[in-house]
Amino acid sequence: MKISLEALKYYVDINVSVEELCDRMVMAGFEVEEIVDLSADMKNVVVGKIESIVPHPDSDHLQICQVNVGTEVQQIVTGAQNVFVGAYVPAALHDSYLPGGVHIKKGKLRGVESVGMLCSGEELNLKDCDYPGAEVNGIMIMDDKYPAGTDMREVLGLFDYVIDFKITANRPDCQCIIGVAKEISVVLGVPFRAPKTEYTTVGDDINNYVKIDVENYELCPRYVGRFVKNLRIKESPRWLKHCLTASGMRPINNIVDITNFVMLETGQPMHAFNYDQLEGKHIIVRNARAGESIQTLDEKKYDLNEEMLVIADGEKPSCLAGIMGGLESEIENDTKNLFLESAKFKRDNIRRTGRTLGIRTEASGRFEKGVDVMNVSYAMDRALSLICDLDAGDIVEGVIDRNEGLPEDRVITTTGKAICDLLGLEIPTDRMVEILSSLGLGTTLDGDTITCRVPSIRSDIEGKADLAEEVMRIYGYDHIVGTPMRGAVMRGRLLPQRLAENRIKAAMTALGAREIMTYSFISSKAIGMLGLAEDDERMKAVKILNPLGDEYSTMRTQLTTSMLTVLSTNYNRKIPAVRMYEVSKRFIPKSLPVTEQPYELPTMSIGLYGSDEDFFTLKGMVEKVFAEFGVTARYERAAEPYLHPGRQAVATVGGEAVAVLGEVHPDAVKAFSLAERTYIAEIKLDKLLTAEKPKVLYKALPKFPAVSRDFALLCDIDLPAGEIEETIRSAAGKLCEKVELFDLYIGSQIPEGMKSIAYNVSLRSADGTLDDEQIDRVVSKIVKKLAEIGANLRG
Amino acid sequence: MKEQLSQIRETALAAVAAAADSAAIEELRVRFLGKKGEVSAILKSLGQLSAEERPLMGQLANEVRADIEAAITEKKAALGKAALAARLESEKIDITMPAKAGTVGGLHPLNTVLADMIDIFQSMGFDVVDGPEVETDYYNFEALNIPADHPARDMQDTFYLGENILLRTQTSAAQIRTMKDRKPPIRIVCPGRVFRADEVDATHSPVFHQMEGLVVDKGITMCDLKGVLEQFAHEIYGPDTKVKFRPSFFPFTEPSVEVDVTCSECGGKGCRVCKGSGWIEILGAGMVHPNVLRACGIDPEEYSGFAFGIGLDRLTTTRYKISDIRLLFENDKRFLEQF
């Protein structure tokens, strides 16, 4: 809400600096977004009176003017042709500033000294509505109201500030000058001066001219109409125009300006109809009918639906209720008679209509925030008073006020103690009553009982908590003194899932991985880039109905896409090696389209590339995660389309798939623009969280020496190492301490289709030193079992 | 023979003293003390002496032997020490050469800050709870005293997934779930991800993070709220930090306040970071609205409480002076490694 400081002074004496005023308003709940000093843009520009003009000796278009600038006569050269002796013009003197930062200094024009510049309206950033004739081609010619030497900022009313107050959603009553001025009066402790609402009529009777029917009181709880005849349309006075422009509105003519000004002043939007354009002299507030349309003041045509409220005449919609008037009933310079509307419309209906049609106006914004039903008639009186003062027309006697009953003040009762208990302060009850009364809440005190009569304009005040806030924001929040945490000593706990995630993250940190965080939604195309089958669970994603764009449109069903995108970003920035992980959620719908909240399942991704990385470094990291849950996984070949067909695995625990890991398929490498060898794993943490971290129990340190034996084997190239290792373990039984692969060879030294694979096996007994006989027995059992799966000792 | 012995001793001691390395010493040991050595030869020849002379000469020979042995031992130790010193000298390295650093990973900066916050509130007895990111209209709005036509809905542009299903716009939704689940006294914080339809730029992100705090008990006051927030501000920004309440509006608290802390950059004097005001806005808070307590089945006449919501992203960017919020979600390794 932008308000001119000078305008505010009409309602309340402001005896502090603009900075102090703003600081104190902030502490009362009115944040200030901006303070604009209107005088800051212009400096050293004065009214000049041209005393004489001679042509420039060396130019056929320049003229040399002697200009009276108040204290002296100065010589200014101009190129404009519309100047004349005796004209009052804006003169920018030496070292002056014009809007837009233009700096004027004295100098010579074709050898003739000029101390400054005569200005056009455009150079002063003025339009005709700011000063009549400002848009003329040439120098701006002014009237003689201000003597030569007067600062142009005084002439233009620029010794003023515009303060932009941020009005919170609970205070629609402060979306206007009066609302803010009343708050200022309480904050500064000075009286509020209400504007005039008196006017005289010319008799006659409104009922001779118009009939009003409200068909839908739910959407229009109150509709007030007045009739003004013999309009005298003209330009508004300067104070009125200044007020409008300060608040960002464009002056048009006295009638339109009055309705706009009253809206700024009282917060109640008004609408002026050209009475003679109303068919049947009948105003009907009703829902639009199917197929109806309206052309509004902005000359656009809108098709209406039956949920939209219109103000219709006997024939058709004449105004989009609360949003914008119709072009046909617009007030123009030759309009004779006025039907003036002040009404309350239901806020969410206005919002919905505005959204549907894509229109938002000063009026609709105020209706959406909520206007006070009692303020409707006050604003009407104020508008009529201005019409009367400005002699804009003849007010006809009589008002038509359609409503289904008006609200009484609400009565709220509480106690001083209740308010003090909530705030934790001892505020004297008298002070509370004083504050509440000054805010316009009729407040009485009986013992400790406080009774407030709350007018409908303060719809935000419902109970003691609201009264406590009113008291507090005026009494001052700096009175609140912090008390340390009280009450029973409690121990703050973490949920098991967070504890598990903390363990995983610690493990990842130790392994040199960096945690990443990415958005929960991805682009709809990104899932397609993994090449998943249509019926894959991950393809059934929840869509955002109103996304910021396709890029952020789909709730992710996996973290792989996000990880690959991040790896790609890093790779394309020439970062040679990366180890990253993310712990987040995947969203799996219970049904599509969505009718209930989807499952949000804890998930982890790990992504790597770089010369030290391969499938097995990735596998090692995945196993560290499993270790944090105390589970051991089995690995089987998997068939993810985005992974290398020969270098991917699914890890299962208890028969259930908990992770997929592998090298990224060359097609996906290309699609995501990744390093040639990129590795990625996705782990379903939800499947692991049910596993308890195993209890750690001490095991006795070995008392007897271990024996180590190497097995160099030759076998089919496809015999999985996992199977060989398992065979050795089961053959060695409880003596098996460690089985370690230490060599793998495939090549010309051995037959084609075979591999050479070598293990070191460590055997140890807890009961004594193993003797040769025991060792030989185990070794030959291992050799025999290995032979059974086709792995034979190399000769 | 006596002269012979002292001759041997003299020769041996001189030779030992002159020996240059352990090989020379060994040679001397063999020459003098070996089985065929000079001292052994003397001892062997003792039998030829008279019974009176024999013990005297024997004793003398043993003394000579002991002297030579001692000299050899001492010389050996000296040579060993010198050899070690020489080796150590030859192994000298340039200690300014770069370290061989093992790689350690780390948390995302948002989670580093979150971990600090959790630590602070956990130590004050707050349980740390979680809530869903996809919420229903009821938990995100309705129960928080934001009915369907309330203008406050306009304060937050909401992403919808279905009718009445949305991405939560505030962790405050967790207040309701907690109050319906637990009986007072309640003391929780709920960190989490929230969403608003803000176009992405240097200071806006459609995805950001908050931590909601909620305390409900008998006799909780606004001074208690300030006390807890002061504690938090002291831990995060330093013990001299001051906390200021400014009146504001949130539908789910009444009275509502914006909370400012003295600017950690200038200590409250006013600088570019705080735009000259000396204060930085860090969170919104207030006393839980009676309508919210009622919606959760808690009698506002018996209990009161406070709630606050802290923006994690802002806290992180100001702590590390990160100029562009997009860096947090880009995950450039060179960025992440700085924390």
Secondary-structure blueprint:
The complex is a heterodimer of chains A (795) and B (339).
Chain A: E1 2-4, H1 5-8, H2 18-27, E2 31-37, E3 43-55, E4 63-68, E5 73-78, E6 88-98, E7 102-104, E8 107-109, E9 112-114, E10 117-118, H3 152-155, E11 161-166, H4 177-188, E12 211-214, E13 222-229, H5 238-246, H6 254-266, E14 270-274, E15 282-287, E16 293-295, E17 301-303, E18 309-312, E19 317-320, E20 324-325, E21 338-344, H7 347-357, H8 362-369, H9 375-389, E22 394-395, E23 400-403, E24 410-415, H10 416-423, H11 429-438, E25 442-446, E26 449-454, H12 464-475, H13 496-510, E27 514-515, E28 521-522, H14 524-528, E29 554-555, H15 560-572, E30 578-588, E31 599-609, H16 615-628, E32 634-637, E33 643-653, E34 656-664, H17 666-672, E35 678-684, H18 685-689, E36 707-716, H19 721-732, E37 736-745, E38 754-763, H20 772-788, E39 792-793
Parallel strand pairs in A: 12-15, 27-30
Antiparallel strand pairs in A: 1-11, 2-11, 3-4, 3-6, 4-5, 6-7, 6-10, 8-9, 13-21, 13-22, 13-23, 14-21, 15-18, 16-17, 18-19, 19-20, 24-26, 25-26, 28-29, 30-31, 31-35, 32-33, 33-34, 34-35, 36-38, 36-39, 37-38
Helix pairs in contact in A: 5-6, 6-9, 7-8, 10-12, 11-12, 13-16, 19-20
Chain B: H1 2-18, H2 22-33, H3 38-44, H4 53-90, H5 109-123, E1 127-128, E2 134-136, H6 137-140, E3 160-162, E4 165-167, H7 173-181, E5 186-195, E6 207-217, H8 222-237, E7 243-250, E8 253-262, E9 279-288, H9 290-295, E10 304-311, H10 312-320, H11 327-330, H12 333-336
Parallel strand pairs in B: 1-5
Antiparallel strand pairs in B: 2-4, 3-4, 5-6, 6-10, 7-8, 8-9, 9-10
Helix pairs in contact in B: 1-2, 1-4, 2-4, 5-8, 5-10
